[in-house]
What does this fold into?
Amino acid sequence: MPKYKLEYIWLDGYEPVANLRSKTLVKEFTSFPKLKDLPNWGFDGSSTRQAEGKSSDCVLKPVSVYPDATRQNGVLVMCEVLMPDLTPHVSNSRATILDDSGAWFGFEQEYFLYQNGVPLGFPEGGGFPFPQGKYYTGVGYDAVGDIARQIVEEHLDLCLEAGINHEGINAEVAKGQWEFQIFGKGSRTAADQVWVARYILSRLCEQYQVEVNWHCKPLGLDVDWNGSGMHSNFSTTHMREVGGKDYFEALMAAFDKHKNEHIAVYGPDNHLRLTGLHETQSIDKFNYGIANRGASIRVPHSFVNNDYKGYLEDRRPNSQGDPYKIASRILQTIATVPLKGSAPKAKKK
Ligand code: ADP
Ligand code: MN
Ligand code: MN
Ligand code: MN
It folds into this structure.
């Protein structure tokens, strides 16, 4: 029987941003293992801010499985962290997501590639490259440099081979800044895949001596360089199939009411990014707008044209946000809005 290298991946207990951790379990299987074949495992939580030294065992529970093209018989195993009694650990944000197979999420993950403390393509001794303008979706050495595209392409291939549902990639507005988009059906699918895609990218960059900088405003407020977001596109069965202006307005009222709870889980330091400039709304305001990239929530033209049915884009989450917490909060807020009695009727046609 072949020996498989199972890379168990989990989120540690660091605040405000969890780090990815992983370790390898070697185990024999007759063929590529399925989720149900994978055992729970454990780790020392006192080294990851998840337990005290005296009683430090935490449990790893596999929740999704992906082929790892970088290793022979390699398997990436995304895990939740549980307490020894198998209840969710307090750091386990995935466990807070409501079950909803009809919920769909699309995350647009932006990030910077850094080398020697500056974005790829920035002069090493200080100073700046050409101002922003030609980098977004650009081509050529002046726009994207040399190794960035190689890393981005390798990352895309590794993710596709893992079965991660990338929908696209693009060079972003700042030099050294990139984006990938991941879409998934089910309330946890896309969020699991974003974490695994982050893992694959960080690991890939090791050999290039490049670090992924996930911070939402790595160059700070004082310069005219974009920050990084993680726009979160979402829809539920009701939003896609029933919709309507009344429901939409009730939904937006709920998002307004809970705006502080949303911002609290949309990633740290977001006040540096949500300034009202650079295609953002201010952090303390909530608004929505049709095709408005300066709004908290952008309503696609297709949504309005289709009788307020479809998906919405929450533009506030940042690049360092935890997609589990983001998905969890969005579904909690949606759940506060009653579905009108007319819904089942409209559904049938
Ligand atoms: P933009 O940069 O213009 O905001 P992107 O193409 O980067 O647009 O991202 C839009 C994302 O919306 C898509 O990648 C997809 O993941 C997501 N999306 C599309 N349809 C739906 C839907 N019905 N529900 C949830 N997300 C969706
Ligand atoms: Mn995008
Ligand atoms: Mn973008
Ligand atoms: Mn977007």
Observations:
- Residues 104-335 form a domain with the Creatine Kinase; Chain A, domain 2 fold (CATH 3.30.590.10).
- Residues 108, 179, 181 surround manganese (II) ion (ligand 2) (CB under 6 Å).
